[in-house]
Amino acid sequence: MLRRTLGFVDKVSFALAAVAMVAILGLVFSMVYEVVARYAFNAPTIWAYDVSYMLNGGLFLLAAAYTLTKNNHVRIDFLSTRLPARTQHSVNATFYVLIFLPGFGTATWAAGRAAWGALISGEVEAVSPWAPVIWPFHGAIAIGLAGLWLQALAETLRHLVGLRAPDTVRLPSVSQPH
Amino acid sequence: MDTILPALMFPALFALIFLGIPVAFALIATAFVFGVVAFGDNIGQIMFSRTLGVAASPVLAAIPLFIFMGSMLERTSIARRLFESMQIWLGRMPGGLAIATITMCGVFAAATGIIGAVETVIGMMAIPPMLKHGYDKGLISGTICAGGSLGTIIPPSVTVIIYASIAELSIGDLFAGIIIPGLLMILFFVGYIFVLGILRPNRAPRLPREAVDMPLPEKLRITATGLLPATLLVAAVLGSIILGIASPTEAAAVGAAGSLVLTLAYREFSWRILYEVVRKSVSISAMVMLIVVGGGMFSGIFLVNGGRNLVADVVEALALPPGGLVAIFLLIVFLFGFVLDWITIVLIALPIFLAPLKAAGVDQVWFAVLMVVVIQTSYMTPPMAPAIFYLRSIAPKEITYGHMYRGVMPFVVAELLVLAVVALFPWTATYLPTILIGF
Fold first, then answer.
1. Angle (nearest 5°) at CA B81 between B80 and B87
2. Between B52, B58, B286, which is nearest A64 by CB?
3. B29: closest CA of chain A, how far (Å)
4. What is the pLDDT of residue B31?
5. Å between B1 CA and nearest CA of chain A
6. How many helices, marked H, and strands, marked E, lie in chain A?
7. What residues of chain B lie within 8 A of the CB of A64, using their CB?
8. I want to staple B340 with a disulfide (CB 3.0 to 4.6 A). Which of A18, B115, B161, B344 is the partner?
9. Phi and psi for B143 in degrees, rounded to 5?
10. What distance in Å separates the CA atoms of residue B348 and residue B328, rounded to the nearest whole number?
C-alpha cells in the first residue's frame, strides 16, 4: 500500500518533469524564433521576453520534484556517508519533518494563494507591452512547489521505512546519474 | 544583540550541509527558521517572493539553455573529434598529448563547461592514450583536473551568469572580463607542460611520428570537421552576447539549437538522445536554480535580519585598505571552495561582500574575475578538491591519490599566478569590457 502510494508520487513528479521537458524545447524554439524574426524579418515579437522568463521559471520548478526522486539535488556528503545507514535516515527524516515540510509548506501555500488570486482577478503582467495574464506562470510555480513538497513528504516516509529496515530503501548518500 | 541571529545562520547552514542534507534544502530551511523569528507568519510570503524573483529573472533564463547546449554536445563525438584535431597538430611537441588535452578542454569547456561532467568525459578519453605513451601519472592527473576545471573561467560559464545576476552586472561585461585571464590560464598550463616536456622528456614524451603521420588534406579534413564547428558555435554565442547583438538568453538558445544542428550534421541524432538530453537538462537546471532560490532566501533573510550591520561592523573593526579587504574576501571564498559547490559559494558569499566592496570603491568586474579564478583554484586544491574526486571515479587503479595530489600542484601554482597577474594588473580583467558594448 505504502509502496504503491510512494510509487504514484514518483510518477506525478515525472509527469511534472515531462511538462518541463516540453517547456525547455519551447524555450529554445521561442528564443530562436525571436532572433530570426528580429534580424531576418526586422519584426521582433512582443512576447519573447515574457515567454523566456516564464518558461524558465516554470520549468525548473516543475522539474524540481523529479530531480529529488533521482536524488540529484547536490549534497555535500563526504562526512555524512560515514554515518551508519540508520543515522543517515533519521537525520534526513528529522530534518524533513521538523523544518523542511513546515517551512517549505508555508512558501508553497503563499504561492498557491498568489496563483489563485491571479486566476480569479485575471491579473496581467503590468510592465510588459504584451500584457499576458500571469496566472499560468504563477500556477506553474505553485504546482512545481507543491510537487516538490509532496515528493519531500514521500522521501520522508521512505526514510522512516529506512529507520526500521535500512536495507529496503536507498540511502540519501546514493544518487543516480542524471 | 541584533547581530547574534545572523551570526548563527552560517553555523546552522553548515551543520545541515555537513549532515548530508541537499544544499538547496539546507539553505531554504535555515532561511525559514531564522525568518520565522524575525517575521513570524509573513515568512511564507517572503519565501514565495524570493522564489518568484528567481523564477521571473530574464537573465537566469539563459541557464537551462546553456545546460541544454552542454548536455547535447557531451552526447556527440565532438570531444573525441576535438582531441583528434589537437593531437595531429600539437602531438609532436614536447608533452604534446597533454597539451592537446588542455587546448581541447579550452574549446570543449567553453561549449559544455556548465556541467560538472566535462572532466569525466575528457578523462575517459585522454587518460588511456597518455598512459599508453608513458606519460607521468601525476602529470596525467593534473592535466585532466586542470582542463576539466576550465569550464568556470572560459565563457560562457553558469557561475558567471549567476554572479552577474546577483551583483547586477552585465553578463557581457563579465564574459569579456574573463577572456584574457582564461586564455592566460590555458597559456600557463600549456607552458608548464611544454617546459616539463623539454626538461624531462620521459615524463611527457612527444608522440612518435607515425602516430600523427597523415597527408595534409586528411589533416585539414579532420580539423575542418572536428575543430571548426565547435569553435564557430562558441564564438557565435559569445560574440553575439559581448557585441550586444543578442541577449544572453537568446544567444544561449541559438547555441542550444546549434548543438542540435551539429548533432544532426554528424549523423548522431536520435530521438532517444534528444529525450535523454532534455531530461538531463531540466534535472540539472532544477538542481542549479533551486540552489539559487535557496541562496536568495538565505542571504535575503541574513541581510535584513541584522547581517548587514554585522558585516559592516566587522569590516569597520578590521579597518583594512581596499586591497586587504579584497584579499580577506578571496581567502574566505577559497576556504568555502574546499567544502561547497561554486554556485552556493557565489550565492552566500557575494551578497555579503557587495556593500563593503562598493563602499571601498573596488572595481566590480575586477573583483568578479578574481573571485572566479579563486573558485576555480580551490576546486582543484588538495586535500578537499572536487576535481580530484571526479578524477578518482574514472581513473584506473594504477593512478593513486598520491599521483593526483602531487600532479595538480603545478597547475594550482599556474592558477595562483593568473590570480597574481589579474590582481597586479587589473586591466587584464577590465580592459575588454570597456571596449566591447554588450548586454
1. 90
2. B286
3. 6
4. 93
5. 25
6. 5, 0
7. 286, 290
8. B344
9. -60, -45
10. 16
pTM, entire model: 0.90
Burial degree of B126 (CB within 10 A; 0-12, 13-18, 19+): buried
Q: What would the pLDDT profile of A94-152 be if each residue is shown by its tens digit?
A: 999 999 999 999 999 999 999 898 888 878 777 777 778 788 889 999 999 999 999 99
The burial class, CB within 10 Å (0-12 / 13-18 / 19+), for A37 is: middle
ipTM score for this prediction: 0.93
C-alpha cell at B326: 579584497
- In angstroms and rounded to an integer, the radius of gyration of the C-alpha atoms of chain B is 22
Closest CA to B87 of B101, B77, B108: B101
Give dist(CA B366, CA B428) in Å, integer.
9
- Give B51's contacts in chain A (Cβ within 8 Å): 61, 107, 111, 141, 145
- Could you tell me if A165 lies within 8 Å of chain B, comparing CB atoms? no
A 28-87 residues with CB < 8 A to B? 28, 30-32, 34-35, 48-49, 52-64, 66-68, 70, 72-81, 83
CA dihedral B344, B24, A142, B47 (to 10 degrees): -70
Of A136, A106, A17, nearest to A69 by C-alpha is A17
A–B: how many Cβ contacts below 8 A?
206
**pLDDT, tens digit (0-9, with 9 covering 90-100), for A107-118:** 999 999 998 988
Round to whole Å and give the CA distance between B281 and A157. 28
**Cis, peptide link before residue B156, omega less than 30° from 0:** yes
pLDDT at position A175: 53
Of B311, B307, B329, the C-alpha closest to B375 is: B329
- Residue for grid cell 558569499: B349
Task: Tell me which chain B residue has its CA closest to the CA of residue A62.
Answer: B286
